[in-house]
Write a structure and sequence with these properties.
CATH topology of the largest domain in chain B: Dna Topoisomerase Vi A Subunit, Chain: A, domain 2
Order of helices and strands of chain B: HHHEEHEHEHEHEH
Largest sheet of chain A: 6 strands, antiparallel
Largest interface: A-B, 22 and 19 residues
CATH class of one domain in chain A: Mainly Alpha
Strand content of chain B: 5-15%
Oligomer: heterodimer
CATH architecture of the largest domain in chain B: 3-Layer(aba) Sandwich
Distance between the termini of chain A: 28 Å
Radius of gyration of chain A: 22 Å
Radius of gyration of chain B: 21 Å
CATH class of the largest domain in chain B: Alpha Beta
Number of domains of chain B: 2
Number of strands of chain A: 15
Structural class of chain B: alpha/beta
Number of helices of chain A: 11
Chain lengths: 368, 194
C-alpha cells in the first residue's frame, strides 16, 4: 500500500498543491518550520482522522481560513482508493472515491500508517503518557476502533474528574454515572493495549538483541493502571473505580484506571528507564517501532506507510543506519523528514526520491 | 444598509446558508407574489411571538401545556425523555410512542458546566409523583448521553418505576454485512430474547 498522490488545501502552512510520492523511500529535506512535519501530518490525518501534533484536529486548518482539505490516491494491489477529508469549523466530511461517508468507522482502516516522532524516541525515559500514546497508535493499526474508544474514555474521565473537584458538594449519583461511562470503554482500552504489547514483545526483544548484542536480555511488560485480572471486564473496572471513591474525592481526581496504564522495559533485573544509557533507551524505542511494522505485516495486511519525523538527528550513526536499513528493507513506502541530508548518507546506494520543502511548498528534486 | 442587503445578511446567519444561498432566496422572494412575502414575514413574527416551551414537558408549542401533554388519547403513565425538541419530533413521526415526553435541554456535561439543575431533571422527578409506570430514555449514545441515562435510572430506580433505554444497532432494512463493526457489536450486546 502506498500514497501515490496527495492534494492539499488550507492545511497548516502548506501551499495548495498536489504532491506525487514514490512507492519507496521519500526523503523530505528542509529547514525547520517549512512544513515537513505538517506534510507527514496530512498523510497521518487520512489514515487516522487525527492530528499527531495537537489534540484538536481543527488545528490543522490554516490560521485565517475556514476549511482545510486533504485528499489522496492510495495505491494498493487489492483495493486502490481515493480518500478525501474536509474539515470546516467543527464539521468533518469524508469521501471514499466519489461516495460521501458519514461514519468515521467506515472510513478508517483503508490507509495504514506507522508514525514515529522524536516524542516516541523519548518514550522510554519520558512520562507514561508518551508510552500510552505510542501504544494507542500501534493498537489502532490492529483495531481501527481503538482510538475512538480512547477518546470516549478520556471524555468520561475528564468529566468525572471535574465532578470530583467539587469534593464534599459533589453529587455522588452523578459521579457514579460517569464512573459507569468510564468503565464502558475503559476496560476494552486497557485490554487492547495489553494484547498489542503482547504481540510486540517477542519481536522487540529479538530486535534489541540484534541491534545491541552486548546488552543484557530485554523484557517488556505491561503495567495496567487497575487490576485487570483474568477477564478484565468492565464490571470489574467499575467495581474498582467505585471502591476508590473516597480517595478520589480527597485527591480531586480518579486515581485508578486505564489512564494509569504503562509499560516497563527491563534489562536483566534493572529498569531501562532508570539504568539504560540514552542510546540504549532510544534503541529500545526504535525496536518497538520496527516490531510494530513487522507485526502489522505479519497480521496479513498490506505493508503500512512508514512516517519517520525528524528522528535521524536524535540517533547516533550506527543506530540510524540500522533503523533506516530495516525500515527500507521492509519494502514499503517510507517518508522521512530531515533538516540535514547528511543524516541519510548511509542510504546512498539505495534509490531515494528527494523532495525539497521550502515555505510550505514541496518540490521533487530534479534528477542529477 | 438597504433592505435587500439587510435581509441577505440576516438569512446568512441561518445554519447552512451562505452568501450565495441567501442572495438566491431574496431574489426568489422578490420574484414571487407580494402575498407570499407578507405571509412569510408575518409567519416569522408569529413563530417568535407565540411559540414557547411547554411548562410541563419542554416541547415547543403555542399552548402550555402543549398539545401532546393535553391529548386525552395519550398514555400519561409512560414518559419518553429526549435531549431536544427535534428528537421529540423524530419520535412523534414514527407514531410508535403513545405516551408523553420530557425534553431536557441537552445532556449532563460537567465539562460544559451542565448539571442536573440545568437540564430540568428535577422537573422530571416532580412529574413522577403522578402515576408514571415507565420512563423511556432516548438520549444519544455519546458518553454524555449514556451518563445522562444512567443518572436518570439511579434517581428513578428507588421509586419502582421501570426505566428503559432505546435500543441502538442495525438500521431497519440494513444489511448486516455492510454495517460497521462497532454498530454490530452494540446490536449484539443489546440483543433481546425472542
Amino acid at each position: 500500500m502506498h500514497v501515490k498522490k496527495i492534494n492539499l488545501i488550507g492545511f497548516r502552512n502548506l501551499k495548495e498543491q498536489v504532491v506525487e510520492l514514490a512507492d519507496g523511500l521519500n526523503l523530505l529535506v528542509g529547514n525547520n518550520g517549512q512544513g515537513k512535519t505538517n506534510f507527514l501530518e496530512a498523510v497521518y490525518l487520512m489514515a487516522t482522522l487525527r492530528s499527531f501534533k495537537s489534540s484538536s484536529v481543527r488545528d490543522v486548518i490554516r490560521f485565517g481560513e475556514d476549511e482545510a482539505e486533504v485528499s489522496g490516491e492510495i495505491a494498493s494491489r487489492e483495493v486502490p482508493v481515493k480518500l478525501r477529508v474536509r474539515l470546516k469549523g467543527s464539521v468533518r466530511k469524508l469521501w471514499v472515491g466519489q461516495r460521501s461517508i458519514h461514519s468515521a468507522r467506515e472510513f478508517l482502516g483503508r490507509l495504514r500508517v506507522v508514525a514515529f516522532t522524536p516524542d516516541d524516541l523519548a518514550m522510554i525515559k519520558g512520562g507514561p503518557s508518551l508510552r500510552r500514546k505510542f501504544l494507542d497508535r500501534a493498537a489502532f493499526l490492529f483495531d481501527s476502533q481503538h482510538l475512538a474508544r480512547v477518546k470516549n474514555f478520556n471524555h468520561a474521565l475528564k468529566s468525572r474528574n471535574r465532578l470530583l473537584k467539587e469534593r464534599k458538594r459533589a453529587d455522588r449519583d452523578l459521579i457514579d454515572s460517569f464512573s459507569q461511562a468510564m468503565a464502558e470503554d475503559g476496560a476494552r482500552v486497557s485490554k487492547t493495549r495489553l494484547e498489542v504489547l503482547r504481540r510486540l514483545r517477542g519481536e522487540t526483544e529479538r530486535i534489541v538483541e540484534e541491534m545491541i548484542p552486548e546488552m543484557s536480555a530485554v523484557s517488556v511488560s505491561f503495567e495496567p493502571g487497575w487490576y485487570i485480572g483474568a477477564d478484565g471486564s468492565k464490571d470489574s473496572l467499575l467495581e474498582q473505580i467505585r471502591s476508590n471513591l473516597e480517595q478520589d474525592l480527597r485527591r480531586g481526581q480518579t486515581c485508578l484506571g486505564p489512564q494509569q496504564d504503562d509499560f516497563e522495559i527491563s534489562m536483566g533485573q534493572n529498569s531501562a528507564r532508570r539504568f539504560a544509557s540514552q542510546g540504549q533507551q532510544r534503541t529500545v524505542a526504535v525496536a518497538l517501532l520496527l516490531a510494530v511494522v513487522r507485526e502489522v505485516v505479519a497480521d496479513g495486511g498490506a505493508r503500512p506507510v512508514i512516517l519517520l519525523d525528524d528522528v535521524s538527528s536524535e540517533l547516533d550513526a550506527a543506530r540510524r543506519k540500522i533503523l533506516f536499513e530495516q525500515v527500507v528493507d521492509l519494502g514499503g513506502q517510507v517518508l522521512i523528514t530531515t533538516t540535514d541530508e547528511g543524516m541519510v548518507a548511509d542510504l546512498r546506494e539505495r534509490k531515494i526520491w528527494k523532495f525539497i520543502v521550502d515555505d510550505g511548498r514541496i518540490e521533487p528534486e530534479r534528477e542529477k | 444598509m438597504d433592505a435587500m442587503s439587510r435581509l441577505i445578511s440576516l438569512l446568512k446567519q441561518l445554519p447552512g446558508v451562505g452568501e450565495k444561498t441567501a442572495t438566491r432566496l431574496v431574489f426568489h422572494i422578490l420574484s414571487s407574489s407580494r402575498d407570499y412575502g407578507h405571509a412569510l414575514a408575518q409567519s416569522v413574527a408569529d413563530v417568535v411571538e407565540r411559540v414557547r416551551p411547554c411548562k410541563q414537558c419542554g416541547n415547543l408549542s403555542e399552548t402550555s401545556p402543549c398539545r401532546i401533554c393535553t391529548d386525552p388519547k395519550r398514555d400519561p403513565t409512560v414518559i419518553c425523555v429526549v435531549e431536544k425538541v427535534q428528537d421529540l419530533l423524530a419520535i412523534e413521526n414514527t407514531h410508535e410512542h403513545r405516551g408523553l415526553y420530557h425534553v431536557l435541554p441537552g445532556t449532563l456535561s460537567p465539562l460544559e458546566g451542565r448539571g442536573p439543575e440545568q437540564i430540568r431533571i428535577h422537573e422530571l422527578l416532580d412529574r413522577l409523583e403522578k402515576d408514571v409506570v415507565e420512563i423511556i430514555v432516548a438520549t444519544s449514545s455519546s458518553v454524555e448521553g449514556e451518563a445522562t441515562a444512567l443518572y436518570i435510572k439511579k434517581l428513578v430506580d428507588s421509586r419502582g418505576i421501570r426505566v428503559s433505554r432505546i435500543a441502538s444497532g442495525i438500521p431497519v432494512g440494513g444489511e448486516l454485512e455492510y454495517t460497521d463493526r462497532g454498530t454490530i457489536g452494540r446490536a449484539l450486546s443489546g440483543r433481546r430474547e425472542m
